[in-house]
Amino acid sequence: MAPPPAPLSEFFARYPSFKHDPRFSVTQEFTRLAYEKGWAEDGDDWNKHYRKFLDELENIAASSVHTFFIRGFPEFIKYNATGAPKEEFSRLATQMGWKKGSPQWSTQYNELMEAYFTDFRGAMNDFFMSYEDEEQQELENPVCIGWVHNPWNSPPAEWRRLADARGWGKNSTEWRVGRIAFHTAVEEDFDDTFGKSEHDSEGWEFLCGVLGVKIPDRLNMDGKRAAAEVFSTECKKELAKAYVNIYDVLDSVRACGHVQFFKTEKDLSDYSYEYGKVFPLHIAQSNGALMFMLRSIAKWRDGKKPTGRKKKNKADAPVQTAEGTIGLELADREGAMDTLAEHVQSLKVSGGD
User: 25-40 in b/e burial notation, b at 16+ Cβ within 10 A?
Assistant: First the structure.
């Protein structure tokens, strides 16, 4: 199994003294590189190397949003490639002198939104954008007013940012129903990307390719194309050997993220809890790709070893998550979703947090 290289690894490899850490975003890594090299921001050296960085990012990321900013406006040298696209547009408009509502502003904003929904569509984006106020969606002042969704963030980090902005205390009603809706959206997007059923051969083949896992030969010994069920089974045999974080896998295709491979389930557990990238096992509902790729990591938490003791019925037990214990039964899931919809509507009506 040969994991794919980290995004922009070739760019950073041109600076041998710099130790690239793919756990951080590419813009964070460029900032570290610039600091190490002594390039003053906005100086000639910084501008020259950052332009190369942006050009290479645009080439490998296959992102319509990056293309809009990097290729469309090369003079926007301070483009933050991991910043919220709406906030970056606000900065661009200021630099270009576009007055809000002017023909130029409207034309470019519409082009950005077309690019945005090419890159980011699906349940997670719908979930997060539902919390943006109408004023934010119209770009009155997205930097200063409330909360603006940043799709480049890893989903768990973006969820925590939303919860903090809304003032949802852990285990509050808002936090509990919102978290269930968030994880439901994650599962929907993961399965839409990598396969909704156990015999979705195209999805399993794509997932193998993303992870650099050896893809089984579709031709059987008689030279005939293997049935979807047979091929999917062979793919899953290879994927079962991979210990990877499902959020990293999703980020690798949606935000040019890096997938780190772990040697053991415990190593994966340590990483997932340390960085808050935990998907509660009991919430997964389908037999798609996400359910298959999840690992039982809670048993390794805090250095504990599996005891082999019989577990209680998970429908009756509290939910164990990275943040704590929630006494919300699985049977309440649909009710929680209804509660969330009602709560979001009340927030929009009242304007409160």
Answer: bbbebbebbbeeeebe
State the chain's mean pLDDT as an integer. 82
The residue ranking higher by pLDDT, 313 or 129, is: 129
d(CA 176, CA 109): 35
> Residue 337: is its pLDDT beyond 70?
no
CB 41 within 8 A of CB 34: yes
DSSP-based three-state secondary structure for 147: coil
Percent share of the chain, pLDDT over 90: 60
Cα maximum dimension of the chain? 67
Could you tell me the two tokens for 289?
């790709």
According to the model, what pLDDT value does residue 183 have? 96
**Integer angstrom CA distances of residue 254 from 114, 229, 246, 286:** 16, 27, 12, 21
Place of tokens 């950005």: 112
pLDDT over 60 at 147, yes or no: yes
- Say which amino acid occupies 282: H
Give the C-alpha separation, 205 to 231, whole Å: 9
Give backbone dihedrals phi and psi of 225, rounded to 5 degrees, phi first: -65, 130
Q: Taking a C-beta distance cutoff of 8 angstroms, is the pair 79, 54 a contact?
A: yes
Encoded amino acid at 213, one letter? V
110-133 core/surface letters (b: 16 or more CB in 10 A; e: else): eebbebbeebbeebbbebbeebbb
pLDDT of 46 > 70? The answer is yes
Are 26 and 55 contacting, i.e. CB atoms less than 8 angstroms apart?
no
CA distance 253 to 112: 20
What are the φ/ψ torsions at residue 320 (nearest 5 degrees)?
A: -100, 120
Any idea what DSSP says for residue 43? S
Under a CB-based contact definition with an 8 Å cutoff, are residues 119 and 63 in contact?
A: yes
- H/E stretch holding 109: helix 103-119
Return the pLDDT at 2.
56
- Chain-centre distance of CA 16, in angstroms? 30
pTM: 0.79
